[in-house]
Amino acid sequence: MNREEPKVFITGEAIRRRVGRLGRRISKDYAQVENLHLVGVLRGSFIFLADLSRALTIPRTVDFLAVASYETTVAPKGPVRLITDLRTDIAGKHVLVVEDIVDTGDTLDYLMSLLALRAPASLKCCALLSKPASRNKEGRIDYQGFEIPDVWVVGYGLDDRERYRALPYIGIRSDDGGD
Ligand code: IMP
Ligand code: MG
User: Fold this and answer.
1) How is residue 6 annotated by DSSP?
2) What angle do CA 86, 88, 92 make, to 5 degrees?
3) What is the helix (H) or strand (E) element at residue 52, kind and residue range?
4) Is the CB of 167 under 6 A from ligand 1?
5) Is the CB of 130 under 6 A from ligand 1?
6) 27: burial class by Cβ within 10 Å (0-12, 13-18, 19+)?
7) Whose CA is nearest to atom 20 of ligand 1?
8) What would the pLDDT profile of 13-23 be if each residue is shown by its tens digit?
9) 167-177: per-residue pLDDT in tens?
10) pLDDT tens for each residue of 33-71
11) H helix or E strand, kind and range, residue 16
């Protein structure tokens, strides 16, 4: 069993700077709206959403939903499933979906289609990380933190079989040859 700390890939300081910049951009873009409704995708986005929501200078509310994600880092992924729905109706609201990472794009595509049916006033998405190499779908990311290569990353909310979510940086398992 490998107990080594993951190698630093993106430092906590670099994440803080990028999240601050995203917060300023989003605050500017939504300056005219009454409220921005943040929808965090559990579980991976919980730390990013906590920091991003505090980097905003505009009125905002927060809700969560949960989808099934990879069971392991190696198994092929099944269809996306909604595990927990939002608490509140989003009709007429300005919604920003907050994701940890977009890999194949299937999760985001599923969520954006699902939420669009509920008649929000606007619907955009923000992802901290994007792995364009493994993208299946064309789906656009409106606000993106970092583009990364096709490696399995952990920390800052992201896990490897539930481990490492609380790391203060984004790392790569030291035994990772790239999955
Ligand atoms: P997609 O549907 O393939 O875009 O996968 C998105 C989901 O897979 C993310 O929300 C994560 O939960 C998970 N995921 C994809 N890549 C990674 C990674 O490198 N580390 C941790 N989780 C990942
Ligand atoms: Mg996720």
Assistant:
1) P
2) 115
3) helix 46-55
4) no
5) no
6) middle
7) 153
8) 999 999 999 99
9) 999 999 876 65
10) 999 999 999 999 999 999 999 999 999 999 999 998 555
11) helix 12-29
Quick one: how far is CA 157 from the chain centroid? 9
Name every residue whose Cβ is closer than 8 Å to that of residue 64 and which is 6 or more positions away in sequence. 39, 40, 41, 42, 84, 86
Q: So what's the pLDDT on residue 68?
A: 83
**What pLDDT is recorded for position 3?**
66
Dihedral, CA atoms, 8, 9, 14, 16, nearest 10 degrees? -80
CA distances from 109 to 1, 91, 93, 113 (A): 35, 19, 19, 6
Q: How far apart are CA 145 and CA 158, in angstroms?
A: 14
Q: Is the pLDDT of residue 178 over 80?
A: no
Neighbours of 154 (CB within 10 A): 22
| Per-residue confidence (pLDDT) for residue 179, from 0 to 100 | 47
Ligand 1 mean position to 159 CA, how many Å?
9
CA-wise closest residue to 100 among 133, 58, 70, 79: 70
Distance, CA of 150 to CA of 86 (rounded, Å): 30
**pTM of the entire predicted model:** 0.93
